[in-house]
Amino acid sequence: MDPPQVLRFTFPSGMNTVKTYWVYMVRCVDESYYVGVTSEIDRRIAEHNLGLSRIAYTFTRRPVSLVYAQAFSNVDDAIAAEKRIKGWSRAKKTALICGDWDAIRELAKTARNAR
Fold this sequence. Notes:
Layout: E1 21-27, E2 33-38, H1 41-50, E3 65-72, H2 75-86, H3 90-98, H4 101-114
Antiparallel strand pairs: 1-2, 1-3
């Protein structure tokens, strides 16, 4: 008796797994926030803490700690969210970290009225 056939499927590059992109926020040792996007969140936070680049915002503000992360399946959506959050006030970023959606809405109204 012949052994059972094993079917092997090959996929074009990138189609065999769903990649996750993360918008993340870290709190630096000076209490400032840094917002970024990555596909490997654990590695990226470690890189911030290792200080691999002297010109990076977080280099002189280590250690950093992860305070917020949101997953996306589309890199363009992740980048758009990163840019949006980077433009927010500190108060609005803090509300996001706390999951305080009422405060986020109020802060958005305040920002619109200030223009």
